[in-house]
Recover the amino acids of this structure.
């Protein structure tokens, strides 16, 4: 019942008994001393409320059976309470205070608090502009523990539903009073502790009160409860809180829906049955429809006899569409755009008096005036210690307990004073000495805070303490106390000042009068509401506008960082991050250390350092990696500027602005460069130039855990932003990634992290600057996605290098040895580099230690990018010793006359260390050539040195890096379209000094005795080069022993057997194979097949394990499948050399029949005239019947696997992979076709036999062979035809013709063949739409329907349901057709089949999109992927970058072809609209991060693509935003 919610405790009872309910009367009697519970119940049953209680006397008590004793006690207690109430003077604590602002809307981390009895300066209201929240107040004091939660949820739901229907933001406040019992908006406080119970109860209430279809929307629109602290009137802390619930009916969530709620009503009903009458209670949910009506919520479905309510309801429902549109427009108008701010620069100006440095500040001393602080502010107020204020006027009575003074005192010397100590009773100098004004900070408690003085309420402070504070201010402003015009008063508004009687207003007024203006006053707060309230109060009090002396757009963390950065000692000792507009925040050492995968570039990088400018410049010019110091020194007066490459301005003015316009959390810029051409330098220069606009960082290592990197990047982005949107993005440079897939992985993880952190923005939050080496030196035109730096300088760049050389020659004596600089200045001329190598290496002697070290360094630098040797390793090897008089010798000097070829660098690995490397990659290459040409020092000799000299591996520092580099140059193969056999180093040794490679590899096995990869390398060497299969087998077995469950080492064992068989066949020179050798060959083949099957099984197990860990993106190992195919080809080759299958020419049909399992060897032997002669051959063959009879099926299965794998699965970016095995697969398939699919080249006798065997079905057999020959007998093979440049439209038509023949009803085609026929027509339509062999689209749909109604084999589920979804997707042009009700079912079955059939192989892959939904109809509505590529004139790398950044969808030609579909976001999926209103189809985002920022129910627009995993959504945009853009 409604009045049940009004019970309360005695201390919370209204002062006037007249206002008591019967529940409060009952509760009051319970609380009385010697109170009788029975009497309380009697009064409750008699409905005695406050007014009734006042009228009761002894006689009336007797009438209701209350005895004399209890009646006397109650009457006495009542009269005493009335008497006390009359005598109680009117106190300020009972009167409402001054106005205050409500807590910031939709925030939870603000420091705002209410003061008891103050009142909110916003009235209860209805919808205004729909964005400015309306408000509703609930006192929430007349409740018990049993009823408070139901009261809270009922009121919150009613208000929320009204706001959602009215489409207005709103806040309902519990603990804020209203008339008549309180002043309107009076702060009361409702609860005494923060608890999750309110949030849980509200969530549960939403589920029970809203319709099922709207529950999720309501959960998103109704925000969790917020608990706002309530201070006492004297600003001390209380134990009360106000509970607030914010409502945000976002247009993308609410659309044009209306929201009913349900309330459970209990009604009594009488049932009459014969002689009995029973009373039952029925529970019925009553439907409600709330809207905002002024300051309250009105139910338009309230039970009434009037028809007016229903009329209002109908009118409102009819207006919802228009209201929703107004809401969308209001949201667009109030979009949370990050505004550019200059307040960081203004703060620096004002706090220093224009000098921009606190070391040279115009102000010599500072006075701080502060009010109530919040604990979370204190950590951001460290700048106060640095200002070392002369005095702090503190108006927080709890400052010493847990406020500003408590935080400040441990960090500085403080003298605590009361205002009275400033009263001039003696000489000013004497008072100043007593106060120690020039020694310690005088901390003046201006409103109590010490044991001697109690705090005053705001409206009493002026009378109690105002005069004494004026004395303090007057004293401080005396010219003989603080220097005239040389001190600054800073008003630090830590909480909102909202009352005209606030002490801070009086303090300001006094300072203003004493200082005769505001030039020495600075006001700092951290939000606009505090600023507005403060300036309004000052304007009302002093009639002046102080906006120009206020800082309010910066957080206190930004104020702190900006002020601290103005001290030179801090710029040397502390580091600062940009926040935009010249503001900064402090990057604490602890935070920076937690970002251990990143090298953070700060705003004040290098400032205050004392590095050797000459040494740093020389190291860079010689060829060392550029450091931040090079950029810093180039900006100092008198220094030559750093050369800006031509592409620098393009990146600054074109590329970065374009990237910042994209709507993705993380965007990518690829900076491709030829090694040694300045790519890394350009990337770092870009970061340096943007260090004040972006939060810049460099990824320390490309092998870091990307999940950890993503976490740290977002941590850097959000540092000290809390609930605010970050003002500046992160610019992250990543260097030397070896493939784009890793870059894409990092990009996706960063986007995912942004989604998890709910960072929503219209612009990128992270920009990845990917600095990657290019294999090709060819210059390419730069684009907005990719910039290329080649080994050729423009004319402008050459002139800049010429000018810089003139400057260098004046300042450096040894400029001619600056080879890193000179190589670029000479425009990378080979003759110059070769000349440097030739001249420097004169008299090279490999027996000298420094020469050996140089040779090793040269070899490492040529074959391993970024290779180096640690300084300590070099010192130990050369034997450098410290000199007593001269100090330590430079490590470069230890290289003697070769010192100009090496340079020191820093290496960040497991540990940080200094190292030595060759100055330039081209120098290393030329030195290696020179060593061979002039001094006959070969690569094998240097490699042996590298492996054999144990002293190289004795140094602890840098040992791991050296072993890693040596391992890399020995085993890392560089795959292109042709698979390389060995690493480039081993390949070069093989070519340069054949035979020495074996010794090198043997030494490698000694250096890496427990390394399975090295053992595998030796096995490969022995079976590929030496043909020593016994030795190869031993090494392969060792590799397997070291890693038993690896498919890669299992493959090596199988490869040994395969190559042994291949070699034996190649060396067989005696014509027909004899039975004994046939047995040997087939045994080897059988063993190889078993080994390759083992490899396949292990590969599947590995893939499943990787899938489960979700961190390893290594793709499925296909080597076992290819190996088995290759063995099959070898078996065919062996059989072709046996007399059974090669009497005069190959008995094509017989061997094909046997290997297909269609002919038994026994039958072949019986039918052969000379079977006695070949009896032993038959005996051997029969031993391997299992291998032979299944050979074709196994080969076919593996060919189909490869088609399925490479056609349906692409890279992790969704692009089609290029694979190195393509040529070998084509070769093997040619052999397969030649035996199993060839009829045209057969001799007449064979053809006659086949015609006889097949009879009338020969043409059918020939058609099937034709289809298999062109891989048109599988759906994946057919799909691949549209990607093949080798297939002409004529061949495709022939395929369609043969497929039609196979599918004639009289031939009883299999389900697979009928499905293939559908695929053939779809693909043919993409290539030649006008073909006469193309069946009509409607007929194709009929054929599809027939297949769908048949019994479908499990193996055909995936291809059938894929093509069904593609063809049956509703057409916009034919809404009159019946909706495909089974479409959702087909999608579900397709996804299930995809996981079932592809689970073992899809790890590290993403399903390829074969078709997109186009704007036309029929066949033309299917836009093939290749057609999209044809619209974009770009190289493969650039196309991939456009695909990832989403720019491809904005190309005009693409937009003209593709249909944009609308839909509704639903968690991680989208419900796509169709032309049938009641048919919504679930699609998955291709890139889940594109759905970030869209709450469930949001309306979105997107492009639909079709993959084997189901329909996917690409280029997801907000529908309302798209309309605005349009």
């Amino acid at each position: 019942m409604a009045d049940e919610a009004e019970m309360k405790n005695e201390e919370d009872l209204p002062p006037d008994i007249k206002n008591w309910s019967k529940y409060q009367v009952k509760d009051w009697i319970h609380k009385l001393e010697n109170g009788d519970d029975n009497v309380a119940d009697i009064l409750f049953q008699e409905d005695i409320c406050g007014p009734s209680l006042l009228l009761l006397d002894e006689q009336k008590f007797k009438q209701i059976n209350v005895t004399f004793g209890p009646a006397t006690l109650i009457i006495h207690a009542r009269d005493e309470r009335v008497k006390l109430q009359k005598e109680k003077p009117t106190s300020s604590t009972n009167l409402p205070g001054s106005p205050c602002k409500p807590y910031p809307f939709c925030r939870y981390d603000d420091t705002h608090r209410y003061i008891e009895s103050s009142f909110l300066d916003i009235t209860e209201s209805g919808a205004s502009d729909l964005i400015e929240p309306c408000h509703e107040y609930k006192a929430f004091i007349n409740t018990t523990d049993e009823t408070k939660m139901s009261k809270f949820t009922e009121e919150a739901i009613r208000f929320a539903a009204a706001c959602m229907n009215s489409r207005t933001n709103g806040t309902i406040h519990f603990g804020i009073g209203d008339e008549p019992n309180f002043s309107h908006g009076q702060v009361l406080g409702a609860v005494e502790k923060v608890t999750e119970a309110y949030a849980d109860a509200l969530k549960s209430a939403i589920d029970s009160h809203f319709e099922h279809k709207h529950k999720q929307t309501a959960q998103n629109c109704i925000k969790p409860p917020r608990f706002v602290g309530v201070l006492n009137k004297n600003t001390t802390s209380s134990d009360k809180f106000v509970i607030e619930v914010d409502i945000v009916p976002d247009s993308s969530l609410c659309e044009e829906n209306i929201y009913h709620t349900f309330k459970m009503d209990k009604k009594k009903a009488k049932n009459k049955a014969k002689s009995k009458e029973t009373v039952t209670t029925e529970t019925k949910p009553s439907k409600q429809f709330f809207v905002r009506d002024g300051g309250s919520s009105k139910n338009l479905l309230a039970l009434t006899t009037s028809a007016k309510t229903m009329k209002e309801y109908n009118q409102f429902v009819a207006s919802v569409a228009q209201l929703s549109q107004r809401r969308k427009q209001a949201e667009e108008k109030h979009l949370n755009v990050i505004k550019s701010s200059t307040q960081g620069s203004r703060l620096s100006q004002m706090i220093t008096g224009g000098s921009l440095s606190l070391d040279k500040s115009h102000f010599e001393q500072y006075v701080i005036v502060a009010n109530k602080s919040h604990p979370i502010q204190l950590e951001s107020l460290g700048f106060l210690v640095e200002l070392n204020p002369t005095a702090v006027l503190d108006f927080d009575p709890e400052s010493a307990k847990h406020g500003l003074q408590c935080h400040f005192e441990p960090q500085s010397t403080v003298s605590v004073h009361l205002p009275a100590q400033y009263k001039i009773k003696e000489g000013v100098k004497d008072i100043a000495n007593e106060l120690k004004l020039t020694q310690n900070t005088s901390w003046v408690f201006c409103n109590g805070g010490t044991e001697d003085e109690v705090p005053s309420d705001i409206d009493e402070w002026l009378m109690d303490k105002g005069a004494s504070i004026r004395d303090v201010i007057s004293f401080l402003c005396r010219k003989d106390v603080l220097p005239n015009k040389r001190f600054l008063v800073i008003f630090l508004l830590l909480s909102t000042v909202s009352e005209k009687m606030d002490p801070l207003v009086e303090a300001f007024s006094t300072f203003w009068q004493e200082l005769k203006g505001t030039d020495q006053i600075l006001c700092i707060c951290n939000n606009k509401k505090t600023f507005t309230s403060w300036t309004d109060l000052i304007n009302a009090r002093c009639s002046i506008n102080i906006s120009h002396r206020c800082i309010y757009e910066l957080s206190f963390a930004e104020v702190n960082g900006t002020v601290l950065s103005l001290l030179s000692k801090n710029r040397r000792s502390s580091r600062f991050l940009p926040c935009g507009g010249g503001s900064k925040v402090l990057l604490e050492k602890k935070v920076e250390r937690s970002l251990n995968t990143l090298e953070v570039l700060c705003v004040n990088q290098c400032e205050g350092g004392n590095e050797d400018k000459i040494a740093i410049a020389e190291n860079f010019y010689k060829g060392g990696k550029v450091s931040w110091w090079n950029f810093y020194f180039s900006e100092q007066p008198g220094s030559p500027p750093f050369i800006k490459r031509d592409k620098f301005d393009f990146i600054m003015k074109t590329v970065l602005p374009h990237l910042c316009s994209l709507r993705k959390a993380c965007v990518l810029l690829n900076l491709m460069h030829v090694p040694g051409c300045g790519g890394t330098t350009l990337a770092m220069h870009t970061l340096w130039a943007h260090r004040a606009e972006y939060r810049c960082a460099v990824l320390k290592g490309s092998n870091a855990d990307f999940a950890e990197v993503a976490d740290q990047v977002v941590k850097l982005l959000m540092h000290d932003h809390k609930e605010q949107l970050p003002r500046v993005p992160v610019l992250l440079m990543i260097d030397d990634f070896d493939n784009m897939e890793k870059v894409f992985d990092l990009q996706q993880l960063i986007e995912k992290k942004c989604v998890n952190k709910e960072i929503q923005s219209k612009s990128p939050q992270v920009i990845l600057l990917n600095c990657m080496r290019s294999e090709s030196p060819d210059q390419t035109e730069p684009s907005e996605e990719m910039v290329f730096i080649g080994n050729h300088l423009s004319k402008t760049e050459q002139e800049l290098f010429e000018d810089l050389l003139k400057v260098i020659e004046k300042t450096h004596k040894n400029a001619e040895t600056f080879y890193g600089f000179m190589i670029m200045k000479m425009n990378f001329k080979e003759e110059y580099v070769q000349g440097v190598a030739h001249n420097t290496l004169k008299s090279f002697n490999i027996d000298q230690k420094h020469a050996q070290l140089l040779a090793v360094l040269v070899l490492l630098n040529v074959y391993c990018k970024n290779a180096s040797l640690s300084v300590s390793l070099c010192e130990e090897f050369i034997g450098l010793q410290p000199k007593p008089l001269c100090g330590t010798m430079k490590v470069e000097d230890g290289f003697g006359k070769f010192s100009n070829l090496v340079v020191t660098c820093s290496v960040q690995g497991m540990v940080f260390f200094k190292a030595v490397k060759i100055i330039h990659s081209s120098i290393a290459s030329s030195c290696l050539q020179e060593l061979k040409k002039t001094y006959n020092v070969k690569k094998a000799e240097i490699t042996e040195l590298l492996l054999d000299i144990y002293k190289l591996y004795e140094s602890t520092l840098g040992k791991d890096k050296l072993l890693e580099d040596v391992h890399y140059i020995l085993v890392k193969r560089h795959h292109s379209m042709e698979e390389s056999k060995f690493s480039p180093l081993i390949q070069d040794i093989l070519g340069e000094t054949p035979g020495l490679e074996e010794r090198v590899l043997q030494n490698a096995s000694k250096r890496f005795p427990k390394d399975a990869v090295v053992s595998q390398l030796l096995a490969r060497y022995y079976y590929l080069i030496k043909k020593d299969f016994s030795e190869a087998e031993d090494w392969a077995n060792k590799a397997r022993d070291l890693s038993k469950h690896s498919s890669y080492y299992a493959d090596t064992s199988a490869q040994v057997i395969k190559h042994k068989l291949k070699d034996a066949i190649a060396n067989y020179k005696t014509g027909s194979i004899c039975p004994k050798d046939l047995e040997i060959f087939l045994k080897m083949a059988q063993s190889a097949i078993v080994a390759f099957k083992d490899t396949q099984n292990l590969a599947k197990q590995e893939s499943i394990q990787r899938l489960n860990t979700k961190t390893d993106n290594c793709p499925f190992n296909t080597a076992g499948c290819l190996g088995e195919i290759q063995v099959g080809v070898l078996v065919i080759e062996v059989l072709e050399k046996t007399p059974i299958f090669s009497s005069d020419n190959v008995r094509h049909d017989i061997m094909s029949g046997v290997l297909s399992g269609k002919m038994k060897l026994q039958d072949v032997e019986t039918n052969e005239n000379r079977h006695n002669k070949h009896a032993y051959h038959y005996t051997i063959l029969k031993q391997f019947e299992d291998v032979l009879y299944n050979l074709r099926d196994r080969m076919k299965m593996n060919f189909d696997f490869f088609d399925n794998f490479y056609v349906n699965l692409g890279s992790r970016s969704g692009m089609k992979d290029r694979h190195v095995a393509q040529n070998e697969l084509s070769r093997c398939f040619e052999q397969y076709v030649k035996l199993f699919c060839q009829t045209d080249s057969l001799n007449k006798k064979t053809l006659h036999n086949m015609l006889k065997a097949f009879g009338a079905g020969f043409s059918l057999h020939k058609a099937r062979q034709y289809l298999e020959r062109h891989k048109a007998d599988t759906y994946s093979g057919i799909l691949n035809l549209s990607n093949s440049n080798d297939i002409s439209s004529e061949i495709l038509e022939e395929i369609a013709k043969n497929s039609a023949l196979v599918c004639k009803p009289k031939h009883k085609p299999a389900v697979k063949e009928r499905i293939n026929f559908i695929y053939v027509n779809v693909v043919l339509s993409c290539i030649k739409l006008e073909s006469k062999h193309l069946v009509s689209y409607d007929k194709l749909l009929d054929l599809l329907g027939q297949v769908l109604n048949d019994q479908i084999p499990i193996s055909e589920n995936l291809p059938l349901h894929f093509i069904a979804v593609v063809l049956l997707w509703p057409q916009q042009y034919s809404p009159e057709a019946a909706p495909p009700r089974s479409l959702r079912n087909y999608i579900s079955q397709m996804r299930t089949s995809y996981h079932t059939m592809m689970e073992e192989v899809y790890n590290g892959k993403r399903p390829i999109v074969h078709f997109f939904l186009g704007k036309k109809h029929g066949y033309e509505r299917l836009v093939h992927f290749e057609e999209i590529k044809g619209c974009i004139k770009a190289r493969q790398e650039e196309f991939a970058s456009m695909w990832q950044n989403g720019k491809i969808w904005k190309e005009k030609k693409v937009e003209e072809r593709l249909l944009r579909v609308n839909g509704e976001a639903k968690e991680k999926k989208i419900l796509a609209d169709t032309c049938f209103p009641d048919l919504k189809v679930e699609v998955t985002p291709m890139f889940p991060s594109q759905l970030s920022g869209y709450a469930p129910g949001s309306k979105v627009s997107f492009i639909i693509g079709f993959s084997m995993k189901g329909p996917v959504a690409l280029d997801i945009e907000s529908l309302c935003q798209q309309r605005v853009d349009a």
